[in-house]
Specification:
243 residues, 4-stranded antiparallel beta sheet, 4-stranded mixed beta sheet, 5 helices, elongated
Length: 243
C-alpha cells in the first residue's frame, strides 16, 4: 500500500483509541464505527475521490451488457478502435427496446428511430445504426436492471467502460490521507446525529465540521502545485510540433 493511503481498519482503530471521556461517541461499538466508516468512505469516493477503473465488457447476442458488481457511476463508455485509441459512444435516452415495425414502407432513411431492430440482429428493439448519430454506436444506462443497453451498430466484440467503483465492497479499502480527517468527522457526526442525549448545538457543530473537512479534502486532492503546473507546461512544450 502506498504511504499516502490508510486502510479503513486502521482508521477505525485510530477512532476507537482517540476518544476521550467527554466524547459523545465514546460508547459506540467497533461494529458501529466501521459501519459509518464504510458509508462515509463511499460518500467521499463518489463525491470527491473519483478513483476510476477501466474494464472491457464483452458483447453477446443480447442488446445489453451487464454492469460490474462494484459499479457506482460511469465516466466514459466507448469502443477501442483499430488505432488502439478509445472512441466515445453516443448516449441515447430515447432508445426503445420493445418490438417495433416501421410506420410506413420506405421511411427508414427519414425516420431511423422509428425502425428499431434487435441487438446484433436479435428481435429486440434497438437502433439499427444505419442512420445513427454516432458511428461508434449508442447506449443507455438501465439502472433498474444494472446494465448498459447498446445499439447494434458497434464495431468489435466489446465496449470499454470507465467507472467509479464502490471500493467499500473490498475487504479493507484504502483512503487517501488527504481525506482522512473528513472521514473521522463523518463517523462522529453520524454516530451522534440520532442520539437524544446529545445537545442539538453539538449535532449542528459536528455536521458543519464534516462539511468543512470534506471541502478541505476536495481542495487538497484537486489542487495543483506550482511545480506540477510548470512540469505539465514543460511536457506540453516538448510535445508541441516545431514549425
Amino acid at each position: 500500500m502506498a504511504s499516502n493511503y490508510t486502510n479503513i481498519s486502521q482508521i477505525v482503530e485510530n477512532y476507537m483509541i482517540q476518544r476521550g471521556e467527554d466524547d459523545y461517541s465514546k460508547y459506540a461499538e467497533r461494529g458501529q464505527v466501521r459501519h459509518w466508516a464504510l458509508l462515509g468512505y463511499r460518500e467521499l469516493q463518489s463525491d470527491i475521490l473519483g478513483e476510476v477503473k477501466q474494464t472491457e465488457l464483452a458483447i453477446t447476442s443480447n442488446p445489453y451488457v451487464e454492469l460490474p458488481a462494484d459499479y457506482l457511476d460511469y465516466t466514459f463508455i466507448g469502443v477501442k478502435g483499430d488505432d488502439c485509441k478509445l472512441h466515445p459512444m453516443g448516449q441515447r435516452e430515447n432508445m426503445y427496446f420493445g418490438t417495433c415495425i416501421p410506420s410506413a414502407a420506405g421511411t427508414i432513411d427519414d425516420l431511423p428511430w422509428l425502425y428499431l431492430v434487435g441487438g446484433r440482429g436479435g428481435s429486440y428493439g434497438v437502433p439499427t445504426g444505419r442512420n445513427s448519430n454516432n458511428a461508434n454506436g449508442e447506449y443507455r444506462i438501465d439502472k433498474e436492471n444494472n446494465r448498459i443497453e447498446i445499439s447494434s451498430n458497434i464495431n468489435g466484440s466489446s465496449i470499454v467502460l470507465e467507472y467509479i467503483a464502490d471500493a467499500s465492497l473490498n475487504a479493507d479499502p484504502t483512503l487517501h490521507k488527504y481525506a482522512e480527517m473528513a472521514l473521522y468527522a463523518y463517523i462522529y457526526y453520524r454516530l451522534i446525529s440520532r442520539k437524544t442525549s446529545v445537545p442539538m448545538n453539538e449535532k449542528v457543530r459536528a455536521e458543519r465540521e464534516w462539511i468543512k473537512e470534506k471541502k478541505k479534502a476536495r481542495r487538497r486532492l484537486n489542487s495543483f502545485t506550482t511545480e506540477e503546473v510548470l512540469e505539465a507546461l514543460r511536457i506540453g512544450n516538448k510535445q508541441a510540433p516545431k514549425v
